Amino acid sequence: MKEHHKKYDVIVAGGGHNGLVAASYLAMAGKSVLLLEAQDDLGGATASVQPFPEYEANVSRYSYLVSLLPDQIVRDLGINFRTLERPVASYTPFQQDGRDDGLLVSSEWDDPTAASFRRLTGSDREGQAWREFYGGIAELARRLAPSLLQPLRTAAELKSAIGLPDIWRQLMEVPIGTVIRDQFHDDLVRGVVLTDALIGTFVSADDLQANRCFLYHLIGNGTGQWRVPQGGMGVLVKELSRIAALQGVEIQRQSRVTALETGPMGVRVETESGSRFTAHDLLFAAAPQHLARLRGRPVPDSLEGSQLKINMLLSRLPRLKSGADPRTAFAGTFHVNESYSQLETAWTSARNGVMPQPMPLELYCHTLTDPTILSPELHAKGFHTLTLFGLHTPASLFDTDPVSTKTRAMEAAIASLNQYLLDPIESVLAPCQQGTFAIEVKSPLDLEKDISLPRGNIFHRDLDFPFLTEDEHAVGSRDLPLWGAETDDPHIYLAGAGARRGGGVSGIAGHNAAMAMLAKSASHS
Asked: What average pLDDT does the structure give for the chain?
């Protein structure tokens, strides 16, 4: 066992994007920072890999898109990282009256989008309701987003500052399922709206947890736009690593924290190799469940992860039964079997222990927006990556027989997708050695094993609304303002997705944990 006698100002446990953001802010403020990462590589869920050795294709394996990363963090840290806008927001194939068609929603409302709504619903009413609904949310996002990088306010204070009482009520106080049913009449349109409330969240539309998920998905950076990371998610990790090193952060990989002690003078951690480090404060940029175990505390209950992730490399894009150009249909989020009634039926099935049939899916073709993740040779040949996100596939479905259940889940996902394809997806998968194909499947249990997401929960734990209750405010008002990173130990802060306002690829949790620690440090100096 090696005892390191240097005492740091702060230890950051976890080298994902939030840990790197927190470490960089603290080092820029003059703090001595040690970052401990359990794995060989930094990044956690924000990683790019080449899962198919035969092909030079960088796949964003776990986390696909960027919505929440604020421009302020990019400016503060000098991050050289671009995200690319997708020309299409979504395409949803459907079959109606014996014909195949699809609902196209462009990133900016246009004539093809209006015509698409009209073909589906028979009038312009639903399209107009869409524009009004999302127009109000866009204004809420613009006013609310800056508060995510500020100390928490109470619901009443934030509601007053934003000044949109009707929209506030719809998103914060009334179940999103009720709001969607009131605003829209078409089952498919309702479902496309509902999807943002369910990504990674295993609940019914009438659970307020769905509201929280919906809110975080639509207020990112004040625009709510889901953008493709140029070069893949791994580029963000490399850039954050560069900045952290430039600021003097000491980074140690293969250093999983296995023991933690705290006292009046600070913290001491021990890693799997037996090394011990001491610091005044600890920023824990991993799941709060892991922190609870290290501290010998009860592990907090939370929803289990509910998503199947499938990464593919295609030799070409498949043709659609609807006749839509696949370069348009797959340019945004491709929704499959995600009408409102299908989503609710899938949730009920999974809650009862049955794999949803048909399985609701979302797919993303990053190479249509960013071909640089492919080698020039693959791009020239027309290859594409395709990533699939299956909804309402909770970890509990995989517990009894993880291997065969994952196979069945993959088959269910492919069958669900193939309903709308002229070319079955198997016919366009890139061939690999020994007769296999370029496809990999990750269940919620794999996400827990690979990157320590508790039960595969991509948010680590249940999401909170981005404001304080009155009781919480009363506690905070006796000391410093609360940032949502504080724990019951004055030397430990949550800096990962499980912190308040922490979900998604945002860096917000890392920023806020750093600000909370710096504020307390300043108050004691």
From this structure: 94
| CB neighbour class for 313 (10 Å; exposed up to 12, middle 13-18, buried from 19) | buried
29-87 confidence digits (pLDDT tens) = 999 999 999 999 999 888 899 999 999 999 988 887 776 788 899 999 999 988 889 99
Partners of 76 in the β-ladder? none
What's the rounded Cα separation, in Å, for the pair 35 and 30?
A: 15
200: nearest Cα among 189, 186, 210: 210
- What are the tokens at 110? 């246009």
CA 283 from centroid of its chain's CA atoms:
21
Apex 158 CA angle, 156 and 160, nearest 5: 70
435, two tokens: 């007769």
Q: Which domains does the chain have, with CATH numbers?
A: 3-46+70-82+231-302+462-524 (3.50.50.60)
Burial class (CB in 10 A: 0-12, 13-18, 19+), 437: middle
Dihedral over Cα of 108, 139, 463, 12: its sign:
positive
The model's pLDDT over 184-207, given as tens digits with 9 standing for 90+, comes to 999 999 999 999 999 999 999 999
